[in-house]
Design brief:
By secondary structure, the chain is mostly beta strands. It contains 1 helix and 6 strands, in the order βββαβββ. A 3-stranded antiparallel β-sheet has the order 1-2-3, with no helix packed on it. Strands 4-5-6 form a 3-stranded antiparallel β-sheet, with no helix packed on it. The longest helix has 4 residues.
Length: 86
Amino acid sequence: MAVGSEDSAQGLVAAVWTPADGQTWHRLAHDEGVFGGDSVLTARMTGVTDGDAGCIAVGESFGPVHQSETDTPHHQSVIWVGEASP
């Protein structure tokens, strides 16, 4: 598993790639609820660890708290947690 970010119409979004055969990497489908979307200008994963119970990825996001002209952008640390597949 590899993590990072990728350019999209919404901006820079967090992304995860997995190797189906150990050599060919495929990006997991983008889910705005998980990886960020219209309310996030930038989201990126910077590290990941995997274990029997699943995986944990860390990173950051930067964007408006709400989408109005008076809101100021915010920056925050983010932790993503994924459950292991049966």
